[in-house]
């Protein structure tokens, strides 16, 4: 239950609503010591899987960006949610969520606002806070970006980035240089993103400040293919669009190889990263029996996306979007090229130079000047641009004798073909400019972290006592080892401190605890997901009943509560191997 996880998270230092002393603000959370460590480990495993293992670059861009970036990206115009205000209590809500929460309709976000207004009236939907009917209330578009001013005054507006992606796209010309203009190449970024959500809800699942881990993969659409064999055998549940639309549609378990071969996932790059994502989610503790990849329905697709799949997890009875995997074509780079006037292409060198026919113009300014006055230079530029895009327009004009037509600032200009200087020349080219296409796996870190906590939350009974524990994988647990002296006397405390120092020197995350009965100390570590506890006792010091146990400690595993004796001298190596999965507890 979400309440149990949230209560544990607060009590044991995973996360709390921030600025609680001032009443708190919805949608902002502070990660406590356990949560910050868990988040860092989740991010580290993502970095390892999606940047280091894939050979992708990582960048770290600013969170505030100028208006021009979001004009080009389209966020300024279209990054809106449907907002409805209660006429009675004045509370604000997402109109599409009210429809989804109270009817069988899914994905109401993709419906036009007028239709959502009609549904609210038809189903007589009410304000979730005070129960007042919302029929007849206007639904307006609410832009989710937080606006700010860069420097004094308002001359230079800026926005907190609503996604990390734009920080990568705007640097593409430079990043392509770093990649030596070789496609494909990928750029990752892990960082904060900000969305002024109308009604944040469900703890970390919908917040106003969150962390994204995004990968922008730049590929040559004509040539590049992923090394699918690396993930071909990865199995995951798939929920394609046709199954969602069918009355008896179902979720199908399949391998990545199968969904590529039968065309379920059309783009092999998307399929590749679905495979990598399934492996990663499992490694951080997401239960694969409560996980699926769901394809976007046609109405859900962003206008630039050819295909999109979401990774979803079941949390508290709802399917939550954890990540999106979109084929974005050349939309992002071409928008930034148009708006900035810079080149957002990669020059692809041919193996051997080729000779091609190239249409060119050389406008006759002595004729254009008197004819078009101040607009002459723009008309010439428009002719140069037209011959690159549409040389046939000049060929047709040459044959018919009609003038060539161009548009400048909404005005139409007709230029006789002989004044355009149109010619077709043979040129030798050593390569061509390619507009890379973008494949974007985009992950929410907070949702992944929350889902891992929810899916790893367990209650059982040990020695007749109920206990709560987090079955987090050892590789992401905030602390790997809890070290306890059986009692803080007779030298056991000092010896335990030495063990702590040795383990920390070996790079393990260790905590020391000597307060209360040993059983209580185990419970404390169980609740924060510490996978192993080490106890220093009289046997360790050579003062116990069994002389053979001198120099050994007890290692106790969290989930099974099984215990083993391990020599102190090999303790660090054993625990590191257990954490990294090179050893199982039964192997000891
Ligand atoms: N660049 C693409 C992009 O930003 P998105 O689907 O809007 O795509 C990606 O966001 C991921 O970010 C989501 O799958 C989700 O995990 C996370 N996310 C988005 N909005 C969020 C919010 N308000 N709170 C928490 N996580 C969020």
Give a brief outline of the structure.
By secondary structure, this protein is of the alpha+beta class. Among the domains are: 80-143, 2-Layer Sandwich (Herpes Virus-1), CATH 3.30.40.230; 350-432, no CATH class; 479-587, Rossmann fold, CATH 3.40.50.
Features of the shown structure:
588 residues; Rossmann fold; nine-stranded mixed β-sheet; five-stranded mixed β-sheet; elongated; binds glycyl-adenosine-5'-phosphate
Describe the structure.
Helix 5 crosses helix 6 (113-122) and helix 13 (365-372) crosses helix 14. The strands form eight sheets. The chain has a nine-stranded mixed sheet. It has a five-stranded mixed sheet with strand order 25-24-26-27-28, sandwiched between helices. The protein has 20 helices and 28 strands. The radius of gyration is 30 Å and the shape is elongated. The model has no long low-confidence stretch (mean pLDDT 95). It has 588 residues and is α+β, with helices and mostly antiparallel strands. The structure holds glycyl-adenosine-5'-phosphate. Glycyl-adenosine-5'-phosphate binds at residues 163, 165, 195, 197, 206-207, 210, 212, 214, 321-324, 440, 442, 444, 446-447.
